[in-house]
Amino acid sequence: MSTETSPTNAAESSRWRRKAILAASAAVAMVALVGCKADVISYDLPAESARYTFQTETDGVTTAWEYTSDRPTEPGTPTSQPCIADVVLKETGPCRPEPLIFLRYDLGLGLDNTAEADRFHPITVTGYYQDRLGTPPAVTELRAEASFDGGKVWRPVSTEAAGKNTFTARIKHPKRDQASGGVALRITATDRAGNTVEQTIPQAYRLR
I need a surface site. Which of 22, 29, 70, 142 has the fewest CB within 10 A? Predict the structure, then answer.
């Protein structure tokens, strides 16, 4: 399921409208996690700069983006990687991907996809963009929260920068019987342009 909303002023009629293309944001973001196949989503946006929200849910993993988008003045994709609008919809004119932040995880798990209980456990989260976005802004902030009771209570997790667009979070695991349903994660990232993403994984891993 996916929804895309725009602010009121962006919904007014415009003399020039543009076609926005998203390669199924949730599917692209979570393909490594759940093996989804990406679909092509197309919708019209006004030419004026406006703030948008795009939300998806894939196998219980929810992702919500807030981003600013406006009419491109020049192509934002290399000739070796044509815009999906040109290939699929035969659109003409400048084209570029939307500035959505995607998240890549290194959870540091064992071969059985579990982590040790009753101790601090580091995970690494990296923000990235579609390759065809020419000069993406830097991811400047990442907040992490963990839940051990199925999302009823969320606990803040300390994070620190660990390289370009990369952050390390140290999660204090409870004893195994205090997290029988596993560990849920909620990650929020913000880039220099003010674009954000919030992703919630109901069961990222279990404890041993």
Answer: 70
